[in-house]
Amino acid sequence: MDADVLVVGGGPAGAATALLLARRGHRVALVDRARFPRPKPCGEYLNPSAVAVLERLGLAGEAAASGVRLSGMFVAGPDGTSIWAPFASGHGMLVPRERLDLVLLRAAAAAGADVREEVRVDALRPADRGRPPLVEARTRRGPVRLWARLVVGADGLRSVVARARGPLAPVRGGRYTLGARFEGIEASAPRGDLHLGRGWYAGAALYGGGAGNVVIAVERAMLRRGSGALDRFFMDACRRLPLLAAMTARARRTTPFASVGPLGFARRPVAASGVLLVGDAAGTIDPMTGEGLALALRSAELAAGAAAACLAGAPWRQTLRGYERALARASEDTWRLGRLLQWIVRHPALAGWLFRRLADDPAGAAALLAAVSGLRPARDVLSAGFAARLAMGVR
Ligand SMILES: Cc1cc2nc3c(=O)[nH]c(=O)nc-3n(C[C@H](O)[C@H](O)[C@H](O)COP(=O)(O)OP(=O)(O)OC[C@H]3O[C@@H](n4cnc5c(N)ncnc54)[C@H](O)[C@@H]3O)c2cc1C
C-alpha cells in the first residue's frame, strides 16, 4: 500500500474524503474492518444538507435510486398530535445504509482510491520528529504496519484513531438505540417520521409497500425497567405512542435487532500531528434530529480541502488548525440546537407545550425544521422573536 493519505474507515465520512482526494489526483488508500455492503445501525434519514453534499459529489441520483425522496418531515407527539413540516428548500432522502455506504465507497475506488476491506486497525502512532504517522492493523493473513504522510480517522463512534490521544470521554446521560427492519408497516406513502415519547423517541424510515426501518432511542432507566425479550420491549415501546402503535400493529421484523449506546454529544480534538478526524470519529451527537450524515459528509469536504492543501505544501500546523476551526463553525448550529431540543424532550411538560404550539403554527414548525436541517441559521429560532412567537402567538 503506497499512499500519501491513509483513511481509516469506509463509512460516509471516510469514503467521501477518499473520493474527493482521489479526484484531485492524490494517492489515497482506505481501509475498513468490514466487508461491504455491511449493516450500520441508523435511522437512514438524510437531511437536505446531506443531500446537497451528495449532489456536489455527483452521487445523489445513484443514492436516490435505492431510496426515497422526502419533501418534509412528519413529527408525532406522545398524545397522537402530529405535525407535517415541509423543507424550506432542497429535499431530504431515505436511503438504506447498506446502499448509501456502498455507493460512496465504490465511487472512491472508481476515482482511484486504493480501497482495502477486512483490514482492522488496532493502533495509531501519530507523526513524531519527522516520522510519519504509523498505523498497526490486522488482515486475515496477519498483522500489517501502514505508513502515510497523513492519516484520516473516519472510524466512527469508538474511533481507534481518536483514542491514540487518550481514552474517549464517556458520554453522560446518553440514549441507547434499538432498531431493525420491518415489513407490514401501515403507512400511506413513503415518509420520514420522528415519534416523540416522554423523554424518549422513535424514528421510522418508511420506504413504501409496508417496508421500513424503525429505531427507538431510550434512556438507560427505561432499558433497565424493560423485561423479557427484545421483541417485547421494542413492541411495548411502540405501543406507547398512538400513531406508531397503529402503524406497527401488524409489522413483522425482517432483520436482527441492532443496538448502540450510549449515544450523546461528545466532541474530540480533531487535528494532531499528521492526523485528522472526520465524521463520528470527530464528534458524535444524539441522532434525534438526524444530522450525523450531513456532518459526516461536510467534515469530509473540509478535511479533503485541508489534506490537499497540506500535500500541496501549505504549513501543516496552521492548515490542520484551520480545519479544526472550520469544522467547529460548520457544526456549531447543529450542536446548539440539537442539545436544546434534547433538553426539551427530556422535560415532557415543556416538550408537550412546544409541540402543541408548533402544531398550531405550521410556518414556525417549518422554520425550526429548516434550522435543524442547516438550511437557515440556528439564531433565527434561538431568538427572542421566535420565543415570543411560540409563547404568545406573535407572528
Ligand atoms: C441508531 C442510530 C441512528 C442514526 N440515525 C441517523 C439518521 O437517521 N440520520 C443521520 O444523519 N444520522 C444518523 N445517525 C448518525 C450516523 O449514523 C453517523 O453520524 C454516520 O454514520 C457517521 O458516519 P462515519 O463515516 O463517520 O462513521 P460510520 O458510518 O460509523 O463508519 C465508520 C466505519 O469505520 C469502520 N471502522 C471502525 N473501526 C475500525 C477499525 N478499528 N479499523 C478499520 N475500520 C474501522 C467501520 O467498519 C465503519 O465502516 C444515527 C446513528 C445511530 C447509531
Rounded to the nearest angstrom, the distance between the terminal CA atoms is 60 Å
Query: Per the principal axes of the C-alpha atoms, what is the gross shape?
Result: globular
| Small molecules bound | flavin-adenine dinucleotide
Question: Residue share in helices?
Answer: 25-40%
Low-confidence stretches: none
Number of helices: 13
> Biggest β-sheet, characterized?
8 strands, mixed
CATH topology of the largest domain: FAD/NAD(P)-binding domain
Count of DSSP E strands?
22
CA radius of gyration: 21 Å
Average pLDDT metric: 93
Brief overview:
With 395 residues, the protein is α+β, with helices and mostly antiparallel strands. It contains 13 helices and 22 strands. The strands form five sheets. Strands 5, 6, 13, 14, 15, 16, 17 and 18 form an eight-stranded mixed sheet that branches.
Could you describe the 3D structure shown?
With 395 residues, this protein is α+β, with helices and mostly antiparallel strands. It has 3 domains: 5-69 and 94-170 and 264-338, FAD/NAD(P)-binding domain (3-Layer(bba) Sandwich); 175-263, D-Amino Acid Oxidase, Chain A, domain 2; 346-392, no CATH class. Helices cover 38% and strands 26% of the residues. The chain has 13 helices and 22 strands. It has helices at 12-23, 48-57, 60-64, 97-110, 160-163, 220-225, 230-239, 242-248, 292-311, 316-345, 348-359, 362-372, 384-392, and strands at residues 5-8, 28-32, 45-46, 68-70, 72-76, 82-86, 92-94, 114-117, 120-125, 134-139, 142-147, 150-153, 175-183, 191-196, 201-208, 211-218, 252-253, 258-263, 266-267, 271-272, 275-277, 283-284. The strands form 5 sheets. Strands 5, 6, 13, 14, 15, 16, 17 and 18 form an 8-stranded mixed sheet that branches. Strands 8-2-1-12-21-20 form a 6-stranded mixed sheet. Strands 3-7-4 form a 3-stranded antiparallel sheet. Helix 1 links the parallel strand 1 and strand 2. The radius of gyration is 21 Å and the shape is globular. The model has no long low-confidence stretch (mean pLDDT 93).
